[in-house]
C-alpha cells in the first residue's frame, strides 16, 4: 500500500435542471477509484450545491495510482426511479505522483457528459501521499516525469540522454463488443473513455519502468497515439526519449547534485550491479552512441510472437516502402532531368533509369545497387528480427522483473538491436553535430483481430520492422542516430499504413555518458567514451585531438549542415559544395529534416511554410489486393510529394526544409498525401538555382512562347519571393569567412585524408561551381501539373508569416499576444474526378483554409502562424477532413524595421548566452562535479567558446582539480539534503519526497493563480511562451473525449456540434491545468479528431485526443526584479563566449 | 459502429459549395481566446442573415483590406455567427459569462458583448414602450419590424431582453437601476434606460397615441427617471421592503387633497393673482397665461387627483399633453415661458394661507415640472 489518494468534493455550480417540476436538482457525487466508491450526501434542490464533503481516502498501490484515473460522477437523486447521471469528471492523478510536478489538484472542473457535453462544474480537492516503497522490482514507475515537449524542458538541463523508449498496449474496443448492442450510447462512450484512460495510464507506467531501467528520470518528446482499428481492436502506443534531467535552480546555492534528484542510483545498483559492464552506452567504434532500449519480456513469449506474427501478418512484396528523402539535384541526368533523387526501391527503379539520358556516375550506381542489396538482405533479416527486440507489451506482472532483466541483458548482448532514435526536435547546444537527411519508412498491413490483448506482439513486430528499416536507412547515410523521430498510422477498414520518419544525424556523445558520480559505470564506460570520440573523427568530425583547428573556424551555425556521410559512398546522388560559412567541409545543395531549425543556425532572411499536396485515386478493393494496390501506389505518392516540395522550395529561393512531416492517409477510393515543412535559406548551403522549363519539341513557335511565358512567371515569382522573405545571401562569402584560413579547401582535404575520399574530392569540386538550374520538362504531363501547382500557391498576405516549426528565423521580438486555435473542415467531393482534378481540389482547399486563417487572425498583424500542423483524413468515401492546429504570435514590427538587425543580434546573443550557460553546466558535470557557481572556474569559461563537439573527456579532467573544493562542498550539501529528507519523510526516493514547505508554498501559489473569477490559461503548441519564463512543469495533460449526439440538427448541424465539442475540450484542458495550479499548456497538440456523422439518423460522433504539458509561467518583466544576479552572471558568460 | 449506416447525400446539408466539384460540409474555427469581430457581431445583432452580412462586409471593403475572397468571408461570417449563437445562452445571464469555462473571453470583450447585446433601437423601443411584455405583444412584432425597418430577429432579441430584465427585476428588492446594473452588468446609462422600460411596462403607460408620437424614447426615459426617483416607495425610504417599480400608494392618495386648489374658488383666484403678479412684465405672453391660468391649473390638479386609479396612471402622459402642453403650445409659449410659469405656479401655492399640503405639492410639482419641460418640444 504505497500510496493514499485523498479526494474532497467541495461544491458544484451551473448544474443542469434535472427535475422539471421544481426546476432544480438534487445532486450528489460518487467518487470512484479502482473498485472503491464513496458517495457524498444528497444536496437537495439546488443548481449550486455545497457538499463540502469529508476527505475520501483510497489506499492503493502506486501501480494503480498510475494506471487508474479518479472518476467523479455527479448524479441527480431520484426517490422513485434510478438516479440520473449528470456527468463525469476523470482526473489523471499522475502529476501528483511526481514531487517536481503539481502537489494538489484544486479547482472548478467541467462536468462532462458524452451526450450533453459540459453540464456545470464541480469543485474538488485531490491529494496523494506516497509512502516508502522498498521493493525495487515493483511494477510502478512513479516519479518519472513525462513531457510532450520535444526539447529539453525549459527549466531543466539534460544530464544524460538515454535514448528511445517505446511501448504499446492493445485491447478490444468497447464500441465493438457484443454488449454494445444492448447498452446505451452513453454507457458505450464512457466505457471507451475509461478504457483509454486506463490504457494510457498503463502505457505511461510501462514506459516509465523502461526509463528507470535505463537509469533515466524523465521522458521527453512523449508521443502517445491511438489506433482505432475497429473490429480488430484498440491500440495505444507511445514513443519518447528517455533522459536524466536536473532542475535548474535560479540560485546556485540551492543547486543539488544530479543524483539527488535522480532515482536511477537507488534503482539501478542492485538491479544492474553485476551486469554493469554489459550495459555499455557505446557498443563499438562505428556507433559512438547507443540508445538503450531495454525491453523486458520472457523468452517464451518472444517465441510465440514469432510464430504468431507469421500467422497473422500479410507479407506483401514491398512490405515496407522506404524512401530516402535526401534531397539533391538530379545527378542522374545532368542535363535535363526532372527527377530529384528520391531513392525508390525496386519497381520505381526502371522508370528512373529509362528517363536518364546520360549514364549516371559510377559511384552512384554503385551505391544504388548497394542499396538494393541492402533492402533485400534486410527483408530476410526481418524474419529473424521478429524474435528479437520489441516492446514487451507483455512485460508481465507474472514474470519476475529481475529474471526478465537478466534474460534481456544476455539477449541484448547477443543481438544488439537498439534504436538510436530520439523524438527530440530541438537539442541542447552541441548535441547535434551533423544532419544527414530525412529517413522514412512505410508499411501496409492488413489488420486482424487482436486475439489476446496481453500479447500485442503482432503490432510490436510491425513497428519493429519499420524501426529497423529506419535504422538501416540512417546507417546508409553514414549516421548513427535518428532525431526528430515520429510514428503514425492511417487506417481504412482493414488496411493500415504504418509510417515512421526522422532525420538521420550524428550526435555528440557528450550527453550519452552516464551520471558523474556513478563510479561503477564511469569506469566501465571510460574507455568506450574515448573510443567513441575517436570514431567520430573517422566519420568526419574533428575529434578531440584535432579540435583546436576546428574550433577556430566552425561556427555552430553551420556545423550541422556538414555532410555526415562519406563523399565517396553517397547513398544518393547529391551535389556537394564547400560550406558557405566555414568553407572547410562539404555540404549538400539542399537539406531536408524533420527537426526544428537549430537556434544557432545561420539563416538568411525569413522562412515560410511549404506544403506539397497530393491526391491519388485508387480502385475499391478488399483485403490483400487492396493492401497490394496501396503499397504499389505509395512510392509514387512519396516521390511526387518530394518533387513538389523541391519545386516549391526552389520557387521560394530557399535551400532547406525543417520540420518536414509527410502524412499519407488512406481511404477506400483514394490516397491523400500532405507534406508540410518550413523552408529556409541556410547560409551555409549554396544558393538554389532557379527552375528552368524545357520543352522537348521545340518546333512550334506558339509553344515556345508558352514556355517562355511560363518561365518568366516562374522567374518573377522567385524574385518576388526572395524579396518577401528577405533572402539576400551575402555575395562574397569567401573573403570574409575564409580569411583566417587561407586555403580552406586544401585544409579540409587534409583532414579528409583519414577516409579514402581524397581522390574524389576534386572531381566533386568541379560540379560545385555551377549551380545548375532545376529543370522541369514541360512535355511531361506531371511537370505541367507541377508547374500549375507551383503557381497556384498564393502568397501569404502582408504582415503574415507562417511556419510549422517552433520558431521563425528572422523574427525575435515577439509580443505576448498569442492565439492558439484549431480549425477543422470537411469537404465533399461531388464528382468523379481524375487525379489531376483531385489534386487541384485538394491543393485549393488547403490554400483556402490557410487564407481563412489569415483572415481570421488579421487583427494580430504583424504576426506569424507557428507550428502549423495539418492533419488530413478520409473519414468516408468522397469526404476529406483537414484539421489544423497552430498558434498565431504577434511580433513588434517597428523594431523589426528600424533596428531589427540589432534586436535580432541581441536575441541571438541572449540565446547563445543561455546555451552557453547550459553548456558550461554540462561540461562541469562531465568533469565529475556540479559546481554551484556557474562562474566557478575561469577554465570552464574558456571552454564555453569552444565547439561543443570538440569536447573530449580529457579536456574536462584538466580542470578537475580546480573544482575539487567546490565539489567537496557540493558533497556536503548533498549529504545535508539527504539527511534532511530522511528526517522529514519516509520515502526512499528523494524525488518523491516533497519537502513540506515546498508543498505549502506551491499550494499558496495555486491559490493566487486561481483568483476570483476564471483564471486565464494560455495554450500553445510551442514549447515556450514568448516574453515569459516557464518556472515549473506540472505534469502531462493527456485527455481523451467522446461526444455523441442524436439531435444533430438541433445542435446546429455538424459544424455546430464540432464547434461546441472543440470549445468544450479546450475548456476542460484549461480547467484541469488551472486545477493543477498552472496558467498555460505548452507543446499542446490535438493528436486525434475522428468525426463521424449519419445525418439520416440525425446523429454524429466525435473523438478527440489532446495532450500537452501543464506549466506555470511568469512574465519576464515580473521576473527581472527577482533575478538580477543570475542575469548579470549570464551576461558575463556571454562575454566570455563572444571573446573566444 | 452505431453511426455507420447507408449514406444518402443530402444537398442541403452542405454549408456552401466552393464549385461544382466540391462543397464544404463542416467548417469550424475555435480559438483558445474566442475571436469575435465587432462588426460581424453588430450584423448578427441586427438580425442579418449570413448572406446579407457577407454582402454588407464585402461592401465595407474588408476584402481588399485583407486580400480575402468572398468564400473566406462567408466561412468567417458563418463561424462567427455560430460562436455568437453559442454565446447567446450565456448572454441571457451576463453574470454567467464571467465565470463560465467554455469560452475564454477577455473582460473588456465580455463587457462589449453584453453592452451590445442589451443595446436596443430607440425606434423599436418606442413601439413597445408601455405595452405589456406578453406573448401577444411578441406576436405583433412582425408589424413593428415592418414599421421600423428593423429585422424581426433583432426585434425579438430586443423584446426578449426587455422581458428578461423585467422578470428578473420584478422579484427583487432595492433600487431598480442598481438591480439592473448588477444583474445584467450593464453600463449606467443603459441600466437607466432598462429601468425606464421596466417601469413603463409595469404601469402600462400609454405612449402610442398619435399625440404622443412626437416624444422620443429618451423623453420618456427621462420622465420615468423622475417618477422612479420621486414618486415610488423607494424614493422616500429605500429601507422599505417594496422596490421602486410601484408608485407610492400613500402619496397617490394624498394627491387627492390637492383638489382644493381648484375646488375652492377663493384659493384658485388667490393662486392666480399671486402667479400673475409674479409673472407680470417678465414675459410677452402674459395675457395668454393669465387667461389660461384656471384651465391649466385645473388640468394639472385633476391629473394629480386621478393618479390613484391605475387606469388613469396609464394616461398620465397623454393627459399632460392634452391638458397642459397643447394649450400652452397653441398660445405659443416658449419653453422658457413654460418654465417661468411652472416655477411661479409651484412656488405661489406655498404662500396660500389655507393650503396645507406643501410636501405633497412639492413632490408632485417637481416631477410634473421637469416632465413637462422635457416634453415641451416639437
TrEMBL record, chain A:
<keyword id="KW-0966">Cell projection</keyword>
<dbReference type="InterPro" id="IPR056430">
    <property type="entry name" value="C2CD5_YbjQ-like_dom"/>
</dbReference>
<feature type="compositionally biased region" description="Polar residues">
    <location>
        <begin position="252"/>
        <end position="264"/>
    </location>
</feature>
<dbReference type="GO" id="GO:0030659">
    <property type="term" value="C:cytoplasmic vesicle membrane"/>
</dbReference>
<dbReference type="GO" id="GO:0005544">
    <property type="term" value="F:calcium-dependent phospholipid binding"/>
</dbReference>
<feature type="region of interest" description="Disordered">
    <location>
        <begin position="982"/>
        <end position="1006"/>
    </location>
</feature>
<keyword id="KW-0963">Cytoplasm</keyword>
<feature type="compositionally biased region" description="Low complexity">
    <location>
        <begin position="295"/>
        <end position="310"/>
    </location>
</feature>
<dbReference type="Pfam" id="PF23128">
    <property type="entry name" value="YbjQ_4"/>
</dbReference>
<dbReference type="GO" id="GO:0090314">
    <property type="term" value="P:positive regulation of protein targeting to membrane"/>
</dbReference>
<dbReference type="GO" id="GO:0065002">
    <property type="term" value="P:intracellular protein transmembrane transport"/>
</dbReference>
<dbReference type="GO" id="GO:0031340">
    <property type="term" value="P:positive regulation of vesicle fusion"/>
</dbReference>
<keyword id="KW-0813">Transport</keyword>
<dbReference type="InterPro" id="IPR057815">
    <property type="entry name" value="C2CD5_C"/>
</dbReference>
<keyword id="KW-0968">Cytoplasmic vesicle</keyword>
<dbReference type="GO" id="GO:0005886">
    <property type="term" value="C:plasma membrane"/>
</dbReference>
<keyword id="KW-0472">Membrane</keyword>
<dbReference type="InterPro" id="IPR038983">
    <property type="entry name" value="C2CD5"/>
</dbReference>
<dbReference type="GO" id="GO:0008286">
    <property type="term" value="P:insulin receptor signaling pathway"/>
</dbReference>
<dbReference type="InterPro" id="IPR035892">
    <property type="entry name" value="C2_domain_sf"/>
</dbReference>
<keyword id="KW-0653">Protein transport</keyword>
<dbReference type="Pfam" id="PF00168">
    <property type="entry name" value="C2"/>
</dbReference>
Automatic annotation (TrEMBL), chain B:
<dbReference type="GO" id="GO:0017134">
    <property type="term" value="F:fibroblast growth factor binding"/>
</dbReference>
<dbReference type="GO" id="GO:0070527">
    <property type="term" value="P:platelet aggregation"/>
</dbReference>
<dbReference type="InterPro" id="IPR008614">
    <property type="entry name" value="FIBP"/>
</dbReference>
<dbReference type="GO" id="GO:0005634">
    <property type="term" value="C:nucleus"/>
</dbReference>
<protein>
    <submittedName>
        <fullName>Fibroblast growth factor (acidic) intracellular binding protein a</fullName>
    </submittedName>
</protein>
<dbReference type="Pfam" id="PF05427">
    <property type="entry name" value="FIBP"/>
</dbReference>
